[in-house]
Amino acid sequence: MVFTELEGLVLQTLSFYDPMNLAKIIMSFENEILKKHPHFSQADLEEILFRLRRLGLVNYSKNKDQKMWIRCHPPRQWYGRLWLKLRTLF
Predict the structure, then answer these.
(1) Residue 90 to residue 36: CA distance in whole angstroms
(2) Which range of residues forms the domain containing residue 18?
(3) pTM above 0.90, yes or no
(4) CA distance 16 to 86
(5) Cα dihedral 9→27→69→57 (10° resolution)
């Protein structure tokens, strides 16, 4: 998969263990990268998170009327799951 620089930045920022809201995600970005992309806004971040959610790399949940985003492992392909099941049988 080819990611843009901002998508890669969001993936690096998100945690596998702690859900983060939009403000926490923006606050954890490095200053140099935000200076490099001065046009970056909250709407852009929401669009990137939506794209990553469609790819299965990010999940979200609601906590007190806030969306909390968390990174997840991508699902395995059907042939990978089949191979693991066959391997456990023999």
Answers:
(1) 54
(2) 5-89
(3) no
(4) 29
(5) 10
